[in-house]
Amino acid sequence: MVGQAYSAAPPRAARPVGGDLRHGAGRALGVAALCTLALTLVWVVAELIPAAQVRDAILLRHFTLLSGPRVNTAANALLDVLSPLPLALCGLALVLFALSRGRRREAVAVALVVALAPLSADALKPLLAHAHARAGTVHIGPASWPSGHSTAALAVALCATLLAPPRARKLVAVAGGAFALAVGGALLIRAWHMPSDVLGGYLMAVLWMALAVAALRVLERRSAAPGSATTGSATAGSAAPGSATAGSATAASATGRAVRSGVP
Questions:
Q1: Which domain holds residue 51?
Q2: Residue 56, domain member (yes or no)
Q3: Residue 261 has what pLDDT?
Q4: Which pLDDT band, with edges at 50, 70 and 90, does 136 fall under?
């Protein structure tokens, strides 16, 4: 009986990590650029187009008609969550969660987003103040764009989604999105902001998160670059499977030669 030698197929080349991380950073920066463009467009429309100002005021009026004792109580309770101290505690909880999982870079990114996104929104208000149209007796002051509350709400939701385990990420994203939308509705029902202010706050939060994700991808790419400690460990780890494969192929070839020679 003639034996056949079987040689193992060479291992597949590892997919380059740097390219994926580079594309990830590029996509995040693209999102940040789109958010910047959208922020500019929303402000220009709300500032310069009278018809858009009127529609903005009418939509606010519709939301204020939903107010009532129970609704107002729930709206106020929801908005109180985003007061400075509770917001700081939420950010601290997210940072501690990231650190407990050994994700130090994400912890820093979350701390910066939760702190800087609302602060930047508040800093823009006096710089971009403009008069709003009236709808009935409801009127919002000029320094209201973008909303710091809607910025903070979506920033917290996005940070929680970033830190969530893969299995729970979709659920956390849906819950966070619902929370941010509820905050936006509460702001309008209580007539704290115009609808364009709330939209601007959402865009501001996405802008900061996109910048944070881009920075994380760049740092990950540097860690995965040749010569780094992470890459060296990965190379050493991949050498053992390669040696085992070569040894298996040699043993199979020797067995085949022995069978052909009639060795029992």
A1: 18-132+141-222
A2: yes
A3: 43
A4: confident
